């Protein structure tokens, strides 16, 4: 199948050099806002409970509502982004996030929960459109840029975790959470500088994009990536919620020491965000990269079950895996999409189901622990989800030796591409 190339806008050498850097910077700053505003609740949770006079279960909604929203709001977001366009959708996401952040800090429990819901909806929009932007504006470099995106998400989460307590002490929990509106405004400015350099603005009269009309549920790639991301999300949120408690119970660590385990787990995601693209750029296939990530992932629950004294090692390997899993899954989705719209639809399907199951992870792990009175059974449930991730993802990616994510072939060419539909 051949396609007609759109006529590109004429760019000077300076514009050609600035284009990827401007867009990459804009995406990076926007991505920092994608987890930090709701992760910031955790360090302030004690003060929030005292001020609003609520229990732990209700307080937990302030962190679980956004994750549930990531899944359930996806169909509505898909309609919104189709009508507004990709670039404008980023502005819409940031505006909604800013409104949610301010509302959350403005009143009592109702305002806090409503603001959290609004915030979750705004972040959901970003979740859907950013992979599409990466595929559209960085053809041939999707894995590397997805790694930067993953790193930025984790930098935002780490910043919220490390700065949350000091800010709460100085500004109260309302001020500490409201500070994130400044980061969102900075992201909007960064995106405004990026927009003139995006393909949506540079390409004049783009042709109608190629599409795959096969229903998503009948596409092998989509089904497999849904299973892979479900395993990734379930494991990530299950471990994040219960690892400190498990180490406190099983290893006798203090609250501070157990909390430090989360730092290992989160920080190693940054290593994977850059390390996995490095491996892929050296010729490692997408399937091999996924299986490597899953091997590191499963070492965490199995290691805690059979060699718990080495928890630092298992936390580091699991942290590497949780950053690498996100990078590999969405690199595959973007690289196999036939157009920006196809990437947006596949990303929505994968995240919609994956995040719903991810939100169930903490509840299921906690319920199994309560029912069995031990931690081995619930963490083996997590191990089972990682096996699902490996099986679903590797089957979807397939074993085609020519199918690498290294950038040696250009996934999309100015909005369109020639595609081989085998395995789809």
Description:
Residues 1-18 and 407-424 have low confidence and may be disordered. The chain has helices spanning 13-32, 36-39, 45-52, 56-72, 74-84, 86-104, 109-137, 142-178, 180-194, 199-202, 220-251, 255-281, 286-306, 311-336, 340-372, 376-397; strands at 7-8, 203-204. The chain is globular and about 55 Å long. The longest helix has 37 residues, at 142-178. It has 2 domains: 16-201, MFS general substrate transporter like domains (Growth Hormone, Chain: A); 216-397, MFS general substrate transporter like domains (Growth Hormone, Chain: A, Up-down Bundle), CATH 1.20.1250. 77% of the residues lie in helices and 1% in strands. The chain starts with 6 loop residues before the first strand and ends in a 27-residue tail after the last helix. By secondary structure, the protein is mostly helical. It has a two-stranded antiparallel ribbon with strand order 1-2.
How much β-strand is present in the residues? under 5%
Distance between the termini: 16 Å
CATH class of the largest domain: Mainly Alpha
The succession of helices and strands, N to C, reads EHHHHHHHHHHEHHHHHH
InterPro entries: MFS (IPR011701), MFS_Cyanate_Porter (IPR052524), MFS_dom (IPR020846), MFS_trans_sf (IPR036259)
Subcellular location: Cell membrane
Keywords: Membrane, Transmembrane, Transmembrane helix
Membrane topology: Multi-pass membrane protein
């Amino acid at each position: 199948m051949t396609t007609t190339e759109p006529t590109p806008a004429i760019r000077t050498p300076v514009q050609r050099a600035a284009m990827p850097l401007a867009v990459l910077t804009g995406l990076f700053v926007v991505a920092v806002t994608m987890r930090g505003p709701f992760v910031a609740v955790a360090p302030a949770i004690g003060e929030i409970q005292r001020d609003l006079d609520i229990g732990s279960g209700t307080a937990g909604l302030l962190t679980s509502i956004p994750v549930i929203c990531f899944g359930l709001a996806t169909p509505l977001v898909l309609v919104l982004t189709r009508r507004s366009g990709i670039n404008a959708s980023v502005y819409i996401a940031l505006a909604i996030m800013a409104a949610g952040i301010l509302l959350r800090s403005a009143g009592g429990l109702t305002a806090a929960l409503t603001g959290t819901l609004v915030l979750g909806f705004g972040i959901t929009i970003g979740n859907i459109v950013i992979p599409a932007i990466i595929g559209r504006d960085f053809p041939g470099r999707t894995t590397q840029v997805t790694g930067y995106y993953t790193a930025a998400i984790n930098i935002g989460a780490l910043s919220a975790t490390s700065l949350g307590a000091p800010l709460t002490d100085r500004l109260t929990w309302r001020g500490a959470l409201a500070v994130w509106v400044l980061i969102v405004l900075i992201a909007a400015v960064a995106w405004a500088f990026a927009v003139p350099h995006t393909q949506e603005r540079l390409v004049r009269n783009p042709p109608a994009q190629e599409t795959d009309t096969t229903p998503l549920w009948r596409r092998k790639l989509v089904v497999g990536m849904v299973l892979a991301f479900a395993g990734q999300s379930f494991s990530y949120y299950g471990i994040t919620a219960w690892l400190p408690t498990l180490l406190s119970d099983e290893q006798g660590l203090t609250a501070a020491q157990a909390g430090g385990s989360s730092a290992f787990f989160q920080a190693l995601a940054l290593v994977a965000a850059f390390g996995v693209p490095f491996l892929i750029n050296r010729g490692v296939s997408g399937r091999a990269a996924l299986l490597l990530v899953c091997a590191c992932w499963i070492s965490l629950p199995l290691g805690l079950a059979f060699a718990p004294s080495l928890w630092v090692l298992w936390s580091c390997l699991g942290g590497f895996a949780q950053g690498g899993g996100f990078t590999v899954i969405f690199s595959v989705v973007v690289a196999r999409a036939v157009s920006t719209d196809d990437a947006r639809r596949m990303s929505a399907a994968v995240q919609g189901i994956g995040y719903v199951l991810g939100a169930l992870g903490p509840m299921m792990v906690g319920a199994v622990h309560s029912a069995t009175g031990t931690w081995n059974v619930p963490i083996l449930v997590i191990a089972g989800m990682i096996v699902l991730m490996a099986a679903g993802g590797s089957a979807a990616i397939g074993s085609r030796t020519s199918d690498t994510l290294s950038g040696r072939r250009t996934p999309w060419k100015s909005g369109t591409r020639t595609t081989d539909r085998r395995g789809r």
